[in-house]
Design a protein that fits this description.
Elements (H helix, E strand, L loop, with lengths): L3 H27 L2 H31 L17 H28 L3 H26 L2
């Protein structure tokens, strides 16, 4: 059985994934101009990946006896493109830190399956961070 701490980390992860999937989708919808046109499809793709992460984590949480949250973390919708990308980059950095901690906690508890789920998600999050970091170089 998972500890209360690990269950809370899973729910925190769901709230974060819900937040960024909505935030990135709104950024996709709101972007305009040449720079927005060149990156909006990538942002839509990332938003969908994030929603799939929320689903995967929720399924694991439910399997472990927890109740998945339906409340996302606060969604940030700045008015300009550079601020949007900066907020997206910060969100990915926060997710990476959380998932590294979740991996460590799951492994300490002997929950290899949860650790593996987060390791897979971590790879995606690092790719997203790289995307946002690269986009900031040209804005």
């Amino acid at each position: 059985m998972a500890s209360k701490k690990l269950l809370e980390m899973l729910n925190e992860s769901i709230a974060r994934e819900l937040q960024v999937s909505i935030q990135y989708m709104w950024h996709y919808v709101m972007w305009s101009g040449v720079k927005g046109f060149s990156v909006k499809d990538e942002l839509k793709k990332i938003a969908i990946v994030e929603m799939k992460h929320a689903e995967e984590i929720a399924e694991r949480l439910f399997f472990l006896g927890g109740t998945p949250t339906t409340q996302p973390f606060p969604i940030d919708i700045p008015k300009d493109l550079k601020s949007m990308i900066q907020k997206d980059k910060e969100a990915e950095e926060g997710g990476i830190a959380l998932y590294k901690e979740a991996i460590k906690t799951a492994e300490q508890e002997g929950d290899i399956a949860t650790a593996q789920i987060f390791k897979g998600i971590l790879v995606d999050e690092e790719e997203h961070l790289d995307t946002f970091t690269s986009l900031l170089e040209d804005i």
